[in-house]
Specification:
4% helix, 2 helices, Porin, twelve-stranded antiparallel barrel, single chain, 324 residues
Length: 324
């Protein structure tokens, strides 16, 4: 006799939860055209849980870390971030907040530029080590947060879109900051893949503008041209400095095989070396021989932390969904 087949169990709906994670190695950690690792190799890793409210609306939160080389000798960069990603057909949006946390820093300099008069070598009550020999100073705490908005419009193999970031206190300099950029990316179709179709590739570029306000008095200069510890018992003082606005750009090509991506990129800015010294507080900045009263860098020291950089970055990026 014929046996009636058992009804098949319905396929469970996909889980709205997913987790993205990965890491990488790079020859230089560059952030908006400025090295964060002193032009030395760096490592990075991240972990990002995601929840899909609908197929077109995702919320997410994450943590990432990078090795760095800052003027204040902070131990590392640890980032905490989160936001929402709505999608409208070819238009993908991203709104969120990003906290840049730099633990383990050491205060250098400040001296008479702090409230209390000449000889008060503290930063908001935190004892400071002497300033650097080149006159640059650095706060113990460089942590700050940004709010951001991004948009990406995909047209076939091309993707374009702006990004915007805002902070009331960039790198704890006391200066507000806004960053606006435009990004273009071309992803080669599968018919143009390399190595028998196993390696896909792309080219991309970005051009951005960083606006910065005026720093607080810790980074101020005197009208006589002395800065940092060299400013002890010298005055009168100027409250803060007008941090330099600058343009930055990068262009590169990337190759992806399975979960691995090799990105080769050129990055640069229009910051001068003397502006770079004042902006980054580079303790290794050299070359200053004359005073220039009233400028943001009266000693004229020069840093290469904001110049051209060629970066090779190898990353691995996975999701739990892709592993199933």
């Amino acid at each position: 006799m014929a046996v009636k087949a058992k009804p098949m169990a319905p396929t469970p709906p996909p889980s709205p939860w997913d987790i993205a994670f990965g890491g990488g190695l790079m020859t230089d950690y560059v952030f908006r055209g400025v090295t964060q690792s002193g032009h030395q190799p760096a490592a990075t890793a991240y972990f990002e849980p995601r929840y899909n409210i609908t197929p077109d609306l995702q919320i997410y939160a994450g943590v990432s870390g990078e090795s760095i080389h800052f003027a204040n000798s902070a131990a590392a960069e640890i980032d905490f971030y989160g936001g929402v990603r709505p999608t409208f057909g070819p238009l993908a949006l991203d709104f969120g907040a990003w906290e840049y946390y730099y633990p383990g820093g050491t205060c250098h300099g400040g001296g008479a530029l702090q409230p209390g008069g000449p000889g008060n070598n503290t930063n908001n009550g935190i004892f400071c080590q002497p300033g650097f020999l080149n006159g640059n100073v650095a706060k113990k705490n460089a942590s700050f947060y940004e709010l951001y908005a991004k948009a990406t419009y995909t047209m076939g193999d091309w993707a374009v879109g702006p990004t915007f970031y805002y902070t009331p206190n960039f790198a704890n300099l006391g200066a507000d900051g806004e960053y606006l950029s435009g990004i273009v990316k071309y992803t080669a179709p599968s018919s143009m893949a390399l190595w028998n179709g196993q390696i896909s590739w792309y080219v991309s570029g970005e051009y951005g503008r960083q606006w910065l306000g005026t720093s607080d008095s810790f980074y101020g200069v005197t009208q006589t041209g002395a800065t940092g510890t060299a400013a002890l018992n010298v005055g009168p003082f100027v409250k803060g400095i007008a941090e330099p606005d600058y343009n930055t750009w990068n262009v590169g090509i990337g190759f992806t095989w399975k979960v691995f991506t090799l990105d080769l990129r050129y990055s640069d800015t229009d910051l001068s070396k003397t502006e770079c010294s004042a902006f980054t507080s580079d303790p290794g900045a050299i070359g200053g021989t004359s005073l220039a009263p009233g400028t943001i860098n009266p000693l004229g020291t020069q840093s290469n932390w904001c110049g051209a950089s060629y970066v090779a970055k190898l990353t691995a990026d996975l999701t739990l969904g892709s592993l199933k």
